Amino acid sequence: MIDENISKTMDMASYAGKILLQSGADIVRVEDTISHIMTSYGIHDFEVFTVANGIFLTTGVTERTIDAPKRRDFLRIRSIPLASTNLGKVDAVNSLSRAIARGEYQNVDDAFSRLCEIDAMKPPKPYMLMLGSALASMGLAYMFGGSFLDSVVAFIVGFLFYASVVFLDEKKLSRLLTNIICSSVMTVIAGVFTGVIGIGVLDRVLIGCLMPLVPGVSFTNAIRDIAAGNYISGLVRLVDAIVVALGIAIGVGVTILALKFFGMA
Fold this sequence. Notes:
Blueprint: H1 2-22, H2 27-40, E1 46-51, E2 54-63, E3 70-79, H3 87-101, H4 108-119, H5 126-143, H6 148-169, H7 175-197, H8 202-210, H9 216-227, H10 231-261
Antiparallel strand pairs: 1-2, 2-3
Helix pairs in contact: 1-2, 1-4, 2-3, 3-4, 5-6, 5-8, 6-7, 6-8, 7-8, 7-10, 9-10
């Protein structure tokens, strides 16, 4: 029975860490959440080690026998690929861990069921993401000095841009290739409006549409991890943020050169 309770608690704690890490939480938050869950269920002798794409959790029980004490070790390893940020899941797991610490989930199975519900949370509808991208692009274009027409063009470009993101996400391409293609599509659409139709200024439209693409959360978490001494995880996330930015720069830069060559910019 003790072995079964330990196994269930480790499964649940590592699962919570996986959801957090996969949703963009920093390393300190992941390890703190796992620690709170383990201690809340009476397991104090454990070690947890987290990197950007993996969790290692171990504990043990010493059994008293006639001959000599015998220790039984338990280990959980979870491999987590880098994924997009989902702050809704991070908040839900944090709320669950606080509820566990308050004693609201005495049964591990109930807490595990709640974790499964959190992991199954559906992302916003694609059209909502497109609308959010459009509104953000419009507002940022205006904030960076664009006119009303620039903001309107940025709204349309931002909407169509995220439609390409949704389409390419289904193709399961690499992040670098996806960013290059999507930023190129965005620049071409902006070039058609500003260079062919003659509505708006290309630079102001692009800066509004580019800002939502900047990997701010990944870069911030990378700096937080490095500042906390988690150098491996921090460098992995920093490289991931740089790859995203590099893809955007390549897509926009090459496409602008092509637009200038054809007299559209």
